[in-house]
Amino acid sequence: MTSRGDKQTSFLDESNETEAGQNGDMAPVPSRDEGAALSDQETFAIELAEQAAALAEDAEDANYTAEFKPAPEAPGEILVAIGEIFDWEFHLRAYSPRHAEHASALALTAADPLAFRPVELVKKDGRYHLKNGRYILEAIKAAHPDDDTILIRAVLFPGTEEEAVVAMCDDVLGSAVATKMEMAHGLLNLQRACQISQIALAERYAGLNEDKVSRMLIAARLQQDFPILFDILEVPHKAPISYGVTVKSALKALDEADVQQTLDIAERAVADGSRFKPADALELLGIVPMASAPTAQPRPITPVESDDILGHDEQPVGARERHADNIERLRLPDVSGMSLMEREAAAEAFIAEIRRHFGLA
User: Is 293 helix (H, G, I), strand (E, B) or coil?
Assistant: First the structure.
């Protein structure tokens, strides 16, 4: 018995033999006659032929090296000449590189600046300041040097400058995309622009406390006041906060002449093209790292009564303790040096002790 698939194959073969031209050209696509009753095989063949014809036509006209389409238009989008865009004093990446690893890829698209997504600007005193899109702007400048009239797409931040600072910090602080020093500058800018206290900053962002905020502000202020002390580092925007705190503490103990001597050492190193790791930079500047404060040791808790919990071979693996607050606690063992079998035996002993406590043993 012939299956439907066999019939379809046979039908196509017959059509190729009867309808293909002598020169091997594609046979014309059969036309549909709405009034005629078509068999399943004929309907399938017509649809297949139409698809093949459409694909052949697309292949002839296709351009497989076409460029990406421009980014979609954003609400409120405007065109601004790059010469009218200025650095923003409150940008948390003011001391970070202006080019990323993908700068070469951006430069390829920068030949047509309107293909980029819009940059975000803050308007202040009639001037545009860049809030978001630093890599895009630098790529366009590199592709069109000495031409400040090039127009780029932009959107304006809808709020005040203070609100823009808060929005920028809320987007970045605590994320993996910001370094500790960039976060520190964000916190400092929040203080400068919005007069927010250290306590409020610590409460607003997860993972921070007042001590961390204070140290970060110290490091950020030092880089703003003496950027040369960070320029001697291999990666200034990734400097540890402790580097800034250590240098600031050392400078406070020096007189004005010694501070200037320290700055001169850093300037000579930068002029020579030398760059250092933080520890080596401190040694160059003649600064001794601050000793870490000793960690406070917790007071030992002495139980009123203690009964051993026995595990394998009747050896104690922990204890059931009663404390002065009349609460019983189980003291677990350190399992790092125990074999798997010993861990299993200890676990069974503790489970048995818990069942006895609840009257289930």
Answer: coil
Integer CA distances (angstroms), 228 to 92, 192, 266, 275, 285, in order: 18, 22, 6, 11, 12
* pLDDT reading at 13 higher than 90: no
Helix (H) or strand (E) segment spanning residue 106: helix 103-109
**Which residues lie below 8 Å from residue 230, measured CB to CB, with a gap of 6+?**
95, 222, 223, 236, 239, 244
Q: For the stretch 270-294, what's the b/e string if a residue is b when 16 or more beta carbons lie within 10 angstroms of its beta carbon?
A: eeeeeebebeebbebbebeeeeeee
User: In sequence order, which residues have a C-beta less than 8 Å from that of residue 116 and are 6 or more positions away?
Assistant: 70, 71, 109, 110, 136, 140, 152, 153
Is the distance from CB of 136 to CB of 171 less than 8 angstroms?
Answer: no
Q: Rounded CA gap, 21 and 17, in Å?
A: 9
Encode pLDDT of 48-79 as tens digits.
666 666 655 555 555 545 555 677 888 899 99
| The overall pTM is greater than 0.70 | no
The torsion angle over the Cα atoms of residues 119, 123, 129 and 130, rounded to 10 degrees, is -20
Q: 355: how many CB neighbours lie within 10 A of its CB?
A: 11
| DSSP per-residue string spanning 18-46 | HHS-TT-PPPPPPPP-TTS---HHHHHHH
Give φ, ψ of 213 to 5 degrees.
-60, -45
- Per the listing, tokens 């808060």 go with 166
Summarize pLDDT for 155-211 with one digit per residue, the tens: 999 999 999 999 988 887 766 568 899 999 999 999 999 888 899 998 888 788 999
Q: How far is CA 361 from CA 214, 288, 311, in A?
A: 56, 63, 16
User: Rg (Cα) of the chain, in Å, rounded?
Assistant: 36
Residue 76, Ramachandran bin (φ over 0: left; ψ between -120 and 50: alpha; else beta): left
What is the spatial distance between Cα 40 and Cα 260, in angstroms, rounded to a whole number?
Answer: 93
